[in-house]
Amino acid sequence: MANRIPVLIFMIFFCSSSSRLCGQQLFIPTGKITFEKKVNLQRNLAGWNLSDETREKIKKYQISSWELSFNESSAIYFSESSANQLYSDYSSRTRVLKKTIIGEDYLLNDTIPHIDWKIMDEIRTISGYECRKAIGRIQDTIYVVAFYTDEILLKGGPEGFSGLPGMILGLAIPRYSTTWFATKVDALSNNAAQIVSPQKGKKIESEKDLSKLIELYSRYEGIKNEAVKKRIYGFTL
Q1: Strand partners, 34
Q2: Over the stretch 182-201, which tens digit does the pLDDT of each residue have?
């Protein structure tokens, strides 16, 4: 009996520190998630008047890797291949978007947008986590499909999407032929140094500053101001 006591103590410790392996749910307060973003370029250009030769030269997918580092109340979403970043503070419902516009970095302060979600019954496993399906809507008419896990406490996700009862590990916007899926979850990783608001860039601190930027971008792109605003604050970084 005496020989079994150390084994019993070990099993109790093992199950308490590895609860997912012992059939219990582990709620994750901090970590880092790697997302694969995939854009179907050929589908997006389907309505364009392009020659067959040009279409054949266009690759089907544009694929990029993005990371979401998070703690109990905030997160930062970024890619090594892009200067754009999105920092979100969920305790104050605010965010800072760092975005390159006409070759210059800008810092835009904003509130975290509200999305009305409808939770569905479908379940999918993503990167080892059981995720439930939800359907939301942005910009009035654009539908979004998300898969979230309640094992990760922060109610966030890629590209600033949030508002579900856990972390979004899978996301699709059919109208834009774009998907985001987690390929790796580093649970409980020590990444506090990464989760800070962007500091380098020209700050847009007033409505007047924002109006000037929108007008400049509008003239540069030759599109209407409202379309510029959607492009700046849109889903995609």
Answers
A1: 67, 184
A2: 999 999 887 888 899 999 99
Instruction: For 24-56, write each residue's pLDDT tens digit.
Output: 457 899 999 999 999 988 776 666 655 666 666
3-state SS class at 215: helix
Contact 136, 143 (CB under 8 A): yes
Coil vs helix vs strand at 103:
coil
What integer best gives the mean pLDDT of the chain? 84
What is the C-alpha to C-alpha distance for residues 131 and 15, in angstroms, rounded to an integer? 23
Cα–Cα distance, 87 to 104 (Å, whole number): 19
Strand order in the sheet with 61-70: 117-126, 129-138, 142-149, 167-173, 178-187, 31-40, 61-70, 74-78, 85-89, 94-101, 104-111, 202-204
Question: Pairing relation of β-strands 202-204 and 104-111?
Answer: parallel
Count the neighbouring beta carbons within 10 Å of the beta carbon of residue 117. 18
Q: Using an 8 Å Cβ cutoff, are 147 and 169 in contact?
A: yes
Which residue, 5, 216, 219, is CA-closest to 106? 216
Q: Is 106 helix (H, G, I), strand (E, B) or coil?
A: strand
Q: Where are the alpha helices (DSSP H) in the chain?
A: 4-17, 41-44, 52-57, 207-221, 225-233
CA distance 29 to 121: 25
